[in-house]
Design goal:
Number of domains: 2
Order of helices and strands: HEEEEEEEEEHHHHHHHEEEEEEEEEEE
Shape: elongated
Radius of gyration: 29 Å
Number of strands: 20
Strand order of the largest sheet: 12-20-19-14-17-16
Low-confidence stretches: 1-22
Strand content: 25-35%
Largest sheet: 6 strands, mixed
Distance between the termini: 122 Å
Mean pLDDT: 90
Structural class: alpha+beta
Length: 415
């Protein structure tokens, strides 16, 4: 009997030991992903840091490089003792706002559970929620619980009232779908456009803004700093959505990749609606407007686009007027000015004088005698100095939204 008990105990201990050994088997994992602000460039570094159950680095790490200008990286048969990994990417990226490579490197990170994933992407949204996830875990939540809560809070910050079933590390700025649209929208509003020749500070500016957002979200999942909101709204006011689409499309065409650019404009609009107390939701054609740059607007002049005005006086050899309008959030606007008649004034040819004085928010094209003005931005006044001289008439067509026929047409005269 005593021998039987000893034998049973030996078998039990052996089974328990073998079971523990099985549970402690390392995780051998191969996975790939993409790093995107816009896409990161070849040679950028990606490091996978192993984390313990308290989300502290164990000291084990693996390094790889991005192998394509679409931001692709991969790890093959790397061994972890836990399923939690911090992925950290550092390098230059394609700036989709400017249509050129960044002036400096940017670091983005994500925390992932590698258990059931073969694709793990790194982007501004994974980076934004990382500190919040760590904070929630420190308060006693599981990784899964913390990840779900941080995602929901972040979407609410952006003005999106929905929950996320997909993790942010599964998103791609050139794929269709709501969350991909949101990722691209957020990537865009974090970086402004500038026409200045010296753009060397833009990446540093982005890194600073990104850090401020992440830290503000960390404690309660809310951005309380109004300065951050104001900076994002200002960034939006500089964006040319048409140019951005062209920049992204051209970049991926160069890489031989078919890009289906998602509907980012809608989600930028939601952010503006949530935070901008003066958000514009209808087309505006003011009676008068300035003509110069925003930082030096100068005097106001009569607006040729004011719908009730059809006759204008030319008080000298030429008379200052403007082409001015505000395109609403979510809208698009094109104006065509088609000359009908023109009588020269004191031998000066033509009835329009284009001084090319404007605030940078119209795209102007002159072709076959017709001036076409296309709004480059939404929720901001587009204005252009456009002088009249002599005596004449013209038809003005207003194309609002994606309409193929004018929403409004008028004929103006001047003398």
């Amino acid at each position: 009997m005593k021998a039987a008990i000893i034998l049973f105990a030996f078998v039990f201990i052996s089974l328990a030991f073998n079971s523990c050994k099985k549970d402690d088997q390392p995780i051998v994992k191969s996975f790939s992903g993409k790093v995107q602000k816009g896409p990161y460039l070849i040679g950028s570094t990606v490091i996978a840091y192993e984390l313990n159950e308290n989300m502290v680095q164990t000291g084990k790490s693996f390094t790889t490089e991005i192998t394509s200008n679409d931001g692709s990286f991969s790890f093959t048969n790397i061994e972890f003792e836990t399923p939690y990994v911090l992925l950290s990417a550092n390098g230059y990226y394609f700036n989709e706002v400017l249509g050129q490579n960044s002036s400096g490197p940017l670091t983005l990170q994500t925390i992932v559970d590698v258990t059931d994933k073969d694709i793990m992407n790194i982007n501004l949204m994974t980076d934004a929620i990382k500190p919040r996830v760590l904070q929630l875990i420190s308060e006693g939540k599981t990784y899964s619980e913390a990840n779900i809560q941080a995602k929901t809070e972040f979407l609410d910050f952006l003005g999106v009232s929905q929950t996320s079933t997909d993790d942010f590390d599964q998103l791609n700025i050139i794929d269709q779908g709501d969350l991909n649209s949101i990722l691209l929208a957020y990537s865009l509003i974090c970086q402004r456009w500038t026409g200045n020749m010296d753009q060397s500070s833009l990446t540093g500016e982005l890194a600073e803004l990104n850090s401020k957002i992440n830290l503000d979200l960390k404690d309660n999942g809310v951005v309380n700093d109004q300065n951050i909101i104001n900076q994002l709204l200002n960034n939006i006011s500089t964006l040319n959505y048409n140019n951005i689409r062209t920049n992204i499309q051209n970049r991926y065409n160069e890489l031989g990749i078919t890009a289906e650019i998602p509907d980012f404009e809608y989600y930028i609009g939601l952010f503006q609606i949530k935070y901008d107390p003066e958000v514009v939701l209808e087309y505006i054609y003011p009676l008068m407007s300035y003509a110069n740059f925003d930082n030096d607007p100068g005097p106001e002049y009569l607006n040729l686009l004011y719908k009730e005005s059809t006759h204008f006086e030319v008080t000298s050899s030429y008379s200052y007027h403007v082409v001015a309008a505000t395109c609403p959030v979510g809208g698009s606007l094109k104006i065509r000015i088609i000359p009908n008649t023109c009588e020269d004034y004191e031998g000066i040819d033509g009835c329009f004088i284009d001084w090319s004085v404007y605030n940078g928010k119209w795209q102007r094209v002159y072709e076959d005698g017709v001036w076409t003005f296309t709004a480059k931005v939404q929720n901001a006044n587009c204005t252009y100095l456009f002088n009249l001289q002599g005596r004449g008439s013209a038809t003005i067509e207003y194309y609002e939204g994606d309409m193929e026929t004018p929403a409004f047409t008028k004929v103006i005269t001047w003398e």
